[in-house]
Amino acid sequence: MKSTAKTVGIVMIIMLISRLLAFVSVIAYTTFYREDFNINIYSYAIQFPNIVFTFFGTALTTVVIPIFASNFESGNKKKAYKFADNVISLATTFTMLLVAIGVLLAPVLPLMTKYRENGYDFAVTALRIMFPVMIFYALNYIFQGILQSLGKFNMPAFVSIPSSAIIILYIFLLGERFGVKGLLIATFIGLSTQAFILIPPILKTDYRYRPSFNYRDEDIKKAVKLMIPVIIGTSAYPLNLFFNVTVAANLGSGDMVNIISFSQNLVSYAILVFVYSVTAVVFPKFSAIAARGDMVEFKDSVVKTLTSIFYFLMPATAGFILVKKEVLNFIMGWKFSAEDVDLASMLVAFYAIGIVGMGIKEVIDRAFYSLKDTKRPAVIGVIVMVVNVGASLLLLQIMGAYGIPLGNSISTLTGALVLAILLRRKIGAFGGKKLLRVVLKIAVSCIIMSAIVLPVSFLLKSYTSGIAVVDRTIQLIIPAGLGALVYFASTYVLKVDEAVDVFEKAKIRLGFKR
Hints:
Layout: H1 2-32, H2 38-45, H3 47-73, H4 77-105, H5 120-130, H6 133-149, H7 154-158, H8 160-173, H9 175-196, H10 199-203, H11 218-234, H12 236-249, H13 256-292, H14 295-322, H15 324-332, H16 338-352, H17 355-370, H18 375-399, H19 403-427, H20 433-460, H21 468-493, H22 497-509
């Protein structure tokens, strides 16, 4: 478990840099093109390839890893590599077909939004530019699955750093000259690099791609059978986000799409950097343990992973809610209006309610996939989408735009709860009272943290140095830093394993303990 924790830590650092840079790129183009209506169309257009390959690409990775890992566990390396050959060839061919369909449908899709009347031609062009990105997404996800199956986690975590850097460099060097249209091209180039940079680390292994289109291969048949439910299950989150953006596109405010997208990205980039770091490492391990049939170790691994999810994500939820205004002021207050900052901060708070649900769902999904059970997550994925649409539309009538993120959070928490119940039915009791005790300790620590942070934040609001950037930095860093320290101290006093382990390792590193 120590090696797993170390690997997760390294991957998390890389993904943190990656996500941070990705978020910086979002801030860069959001603020740089603040007055350009076309940036809303750009935000809308890039959703399509992201959605299609968030669930199709995730399905590829999800299916590749268990089958690949299973073949390796049985010592059949040749069979594993042949499976990879077939997956690359067939998935690329299928993706090209999807691209062709997308390009043909591009004139139809904007008709479902207000862009049918304003910016229609640019919306069609943007969609046609972005759809071919899916080819590179397919290769990216397959390469990630192969590398992770071989125990190579660092480069898959690194993939989005060059693409984000390309977008940022474009904005600062060429953004004013070529505008949002040029941003589309820069985005296409950046996203395509995600596949190319994984080729060198694959070449460092003994795997070599050889074209093969054997769709009758036993493993390919198994993969297709598993993949269809996975696609349905993993589509819930991206389709929910796209539904949110589509609803926002039809609201009164012309900038609502931008603000909703920004709020979604802020929460997801901050949280998924941790969640994906964990699942990227534990999923191959889940698969290997399941292949050995050791259910005791499997349950133990699931419980330890869920404990880590609760330990980090519960205070993250509290933190987003406590310092929502300070976070948004720090990030976008210098460019956006006070009204937009207020709106975005409340949207972020409502999205934050579903943070723990996001983490639980991702982990339990991987537990089911490693057991080669893809049907249950698929059913829950459909439930999550239905709950999101229903709750969002209902709450939209009651609380306006805030109903969109709250509906999303309700659906995510619902999916996580039902998945946990189904996993218990499949593998028997896991965690139980032990996990509940840890969650209660974490909840108490979050309450103590909140009791300290709230008055400190209130007092700092009256402080001013006369320099806006200094004031915003102080108003964010001090409450956030103090909250983190109080939370850690509280969980240590309450003997939560994660805090105790960190403290003991720190004492050893500092020479206070051998």
